[in-house]
Amino acid sequence: MNPHYSESMALFKRASAVIPGGIYGHAAPAATVPGAFPYFAHHADGGRYWDVDGNAYIDLMCGYGPILLGYNHPEVNAVAAEVQAQGDCFNHPTEYTVRLAEKLTQTIDGADWAVFGKNGSDMTSWSIRTAREFTGKKRIAKATHAYHGIDPWCVPGFGGVITEDRAQIDGFEWNNIESLTALVEQQGDALAAIMLTPFHHPAFEDSALPTPEFVTAVNQLTQHYGILLIIDDVRCGFRLHPQGSHKLYGFEPDLICFSKALGNGYPISACVGRKAIKIAASKCFLTGSFWNAAVPMAAALKTIEIAERDQIAIQLERRGTQLVEGMLELGLRYGIPLQASGPAAMPYVRVADDHSFRKQQALCAAATQNGLYLHPHHNWFLCAAHTREVIDESLQRFEAALQGLEL
Ligand code: PMP
Questions:
Q1: CATH number of 74-309: 3.10.25.10, 3.40.30.10, 3.40.640.10, 3.30.420.40?
Q2: How does pLDDT run across 159-190, given as a tens digit for each residue?
Q3: What pTM was computed for the model?
Q4: Ligand 1 neighbours (beta carbon < 6 A)
């Protein structure tokens, strides 16, 4: 494969004339390596996508997480089309909203109620308001470098953010019990919530799983000081454990935020919580013009049903292990030492001792040019369409990338 990106480049030029930055946010060219990756998608199916130049890729980013069952999933699409035929956006919610809330409360460990939005940020920001309403306290703690969305209290970067936006936000080091304990001992009486992702997956860093001691400390400290524990399961939700990723690691959250995989690509997010917080939740105004739309609710119901039926979390773990073990072995064979981190279903493999990420960028660019789309600085995602055969093919493409690589 020898991809060319002329259409991507032409579209980017047009985009730059009429859209600030051309492509912004996590999809911006600067987030990968300018010129070495495609910029615009055309279509997708199963575990693959095609860019606007007609290049095809096995997709190990899955839209940065929303694609859980595979792109263009026939069962999810069939339900979505059926519901769409009756209408999507009304004056009222539909029965699908109630059914989805019922389903989440039956499925997710510790969930007694659910509310819905469109994006992860809708829910992470609403959940901190709810924690403040419930506890009557102001401060919120989050792990350093953890991503929770684009609202001013947590957005990475400072454009348009004022000091006051962050005045009530504290940081602590992931997996560092001393750092967390020191913060809670100092601020515990003022802390409304600690927000944590189930595992630490910052960009430009290896991922880190929580140690059992850290999980115990988080549970004990939050309970002792009357601090709500919010698990931001936006990125991991439904990939690691069908009852919520906190179940896998032992966190005991009060509120949990989901989005991404919940609708297999249809726009939806959710926050679920414990019964004790339901009244406080009902006082925190929550709405959006499109937030009651029926199609994503129905798509999410179907996605959860299939994820349970097909034991997707187990499948992803198996195929991720096949991928990661295969990559590490190939790295050894070609004299390029690689290191892996994160859970197998959402792995991050990178060139060892590559502090500038230059070698990692070259590796991922070479993989992409060999038809395996990998991000150099962000964890990867498997989906159910990445079968054993697709992973075998991914490893062949990865090997082709290593063969031509000069680091
Ligand atoms: N939390 C986490 C852990 C995320 O990964 C993301 C998105 N990458 C968000 C929150 C924000 O979600 P959204 O982009 O849908 O607003």
A1: 3.40.640.10
A2: 999 999 999 999 999 999 999 999 999 998 99
A3: 0.98
A4: 119-121, 124, 147-149, 197, 232, 234-235, 259
